[in-house]
Amino acid sequence: MPAIKDVAQRAGVSVATVSRVLNDHPAVRTDTRDKVLAAVADLGYRPNAVARSLRTHQTRALGLVISDVLNPFFTELARSVEDAARDRGYSVVIGNADERPDLQDHHVRTLVDRRIDGLLVSPTDGGSPLMLDAARTGTPMVFVDRWIEGEGLDEVPVVRTDGGAAVRDLVAHLHALGHRRLAIIAGPAATTTGRERVDAFRSALREFGLALPAEYIGQGDFQADSGRRVTARFLDLPRPPEAIFAADNLMALGAMDEIRSRGLRVPDDVALAAFDDIPWFVHTDPPITAIAQPTGDLGHAAVGALIDRIEGRPAASVTLSARLVPRRSCGEPEGSTP
Amino acid sequence: MPAIKDVAQRAGVSVATVSRVLNDHPAVRTDTRDKVLAAVADLGYRPNAVARSLRTHQTRALGLVISDVLNPFFTELARSVEDAARDRGYSVVIGNADERPDLQDHHVRTLVDRRIDGLLVSPTDGGSPLMLDAARTGTPMVFVDRWIEGEGLDEVPVVRTDGGAAVRDLVAHLHALGHRRLAIIAGPAATTTGRERVDAFRSALREFGLALPAEYIGQGDFQADSGRRVTARFLDLPRPPEAIFAADNLMALGAMDEIRSRGLRVPDDVALAAFDDIPWFVHTDPPITAIAQPTGDLGHAAVGALIDRIEGRPAASVTLSARLVPRRSCGEPEGSTP
DNA sequence: CTGAAAGCGCTTACAG
DNA sequence: CTGAAAGCGCTTACAG
């Protein structure tokens, strides 16, 4: 691959001049610019971004550490992040933590070593020392979807969805359909979304005079298998719940697997609802009632906040809201025509 | 962030020595190694990968350009690629082409500019000049899933799935269930998988004495919308097909959308099958018959081949096979208990 | 076993 | 408007 000096030589100028035309520096005579451009074209020259980054101390790359690529929610998020970043001249490097803190750390480390300009993370856990370090060390950072608290993390903006109202709508919906024994498959307590969704569910239940007994809170990890496991436990209870709320779409998938494998039917035997909506929910048997996040807006806002930080502007946290999308998995809505 | 010279200073040695202990060079006295390591720990020093890459001419990063992140097949592929790469000490940078040749080129360019050590690509189209250039320019490359032919591309290994036998099995299955008018929602003719799946379908039909008339071949682009559009056209035909085979899972999603919106039922009104299996196919109404690719093996083999090329070993193409997973979307299999 | 020095491919004050 | 030179943070022959 040709280097800048090859271009300079061919164009009969210095490397400084080549660099100037490449960077659109105004002070270059038109004819020398043309000569340089011709040489660039002849050689098929492409600037080495590694060398440029070393010199300029910026990579024009953003790191994005997501909890699980196999989760359509994160995949959509990643897509909107990439779109927004590209629009602003940044590329994004994705790391998939697979809901594993060790893998998350691995990616944070790698990304920081590669000197990405900023880091977008949706933490899998309560925050490792390494994560805190990255934040303190000066790498601009923003949390998306999930976040962590800690020494030196107050400065880190959080871009997320508040599902509170939507969860309340869901509970109202379930209540109206006659369900009284409601259970939740929770995400890891180490994650904010894991805790918040349970809290929101619990307080909505209280509003309707309903309790959330311990045996109706199943501990999942946001992945399908845990949804299966927790659902099995629920269904084995002497008084199983009438409705199950899965805190993400993969655990809902696991729940369906388990329900189906027992020959039971949704919603006749158990109602089911999920946090996070996905296109397939329209076609499942029955279509699944879900809480939809504005994923695209989330990604755009996160990138906006991160670039603000990178470029030295103050960046604010952003909270968007989710909405309930009622379908048939909790029972036939009143006044509907089946 | 501290640089190597800060470590050297604190440890009272030269930067060369620090570099040696960081790279596990054997010729370092134990006590100086300890001093250096202590300084590294004190400062929280992390080597700058950008500088290292510039010096060593390798980034230990692989580029992966996939056609569509929102397609679960590619998402699974990306995951297995990342796993395999990580095991071998490489990280992977993903670029999402969104089935758009221009975006694909953008990513290839960016990745090559960043001097990734090798490129894994699943081309969206017939191959842009830029792509050919990347291959010729010396960037080690391997095609996954889809590939392109062209001047200078003979050397590029192809790691893919041959769906021929599975497609034949599918046609046999449809035939056994009494379907005779079979249609296909094809992928772009510019892609190998787009063409191959039609070819395989056509020759399987021929084997059963069936024709594949032009109006039963709908041109899609591997995304959901096109599945909807093509299905609408099929259903508007004076003699609509009895069965529709979608060449990927997103077009199958679009087909279901369209079928449902017309108040028709699968498989009673039309049978449906898809290339690529996904976990949700078990829970759709009805469960969808699909052709499953060994995605994990595909990713591992692709990484293996690419690293072979990078490290100067000869790399071979790999062809794996797909298998039919019959479910209920084509009709009740003989001898089954509903 | 260790250090001084060159060099990877760029950019950017500083002169002229 | 252009060039010579320094320097980004490393690694690695080459001496000693």
Short description:
The structure is a homodimer of 338-residue chains. By secondary structure, chain A is α/β, with parallel strands linked by helices.
The tally of helices of chain A reads: 12
- Unreliable stretches of chain A: 334-338
* Rg over C-alpha atoms of chain A, rounded to the nearest angstrom: 25 Å
Order of helices and strands of chain A: HHHHEHEHEHEEHEHEHEHEEHEE
Q: Which structural class best describes the helix and strand composition of chain A?
A: alpha/beta
Name the chain pair with the biggest interface and residue counts per chain: A-B, 49 and 49 residues
Structural overview:
The structure is a homodimer of 338-residue chains. The first copy, chain A, is of the alpha/beta class. Chain A has three domains: 4-47, lambda repressor-like DNA-binding domains (434 Repressor (Amino-terminal Domain)), CATH 1.10.260; 60-161 and 295-322, Rossmann fold (3-Layer(aba) Sandwich); 164-293, Response regulator (Rossmann fold, 3-Layer(aba) Sandwich), CATH 3.40.50. Chain A has helices at 4-11, 15-22, 30-43, 49-56, 72-87, 101-113, 129-136, 164-176, 192-207, 224-236, 249-261, 295-310, and strands at 61-66, 91-96, 118-121, 141-144, 158-162, 182-186, 217-219, 243-246, 271-275, 289-292, 318-321, 323-325. In chain A, strand 8, helix 11 (249-261) and strand 9 form a beta-alpha-beta unit. In chain A, helix 1 (4-11) crosses helix 3 (30-43) and helix 10 (224-236) packs across helix 11 (249-261). Mean pLDDT of chain A is 93; it is low at 334-338. At the A-B interface, helix 4, helix 5, strand 2, helix 6 and helix 11 of A face helix 4, helix 5, strand 2, helix 6 and helix 11 of B. The first copy, chain A, binds a DNA duplex (16 and 16 nucleotides) through helix 2 and helix 4.
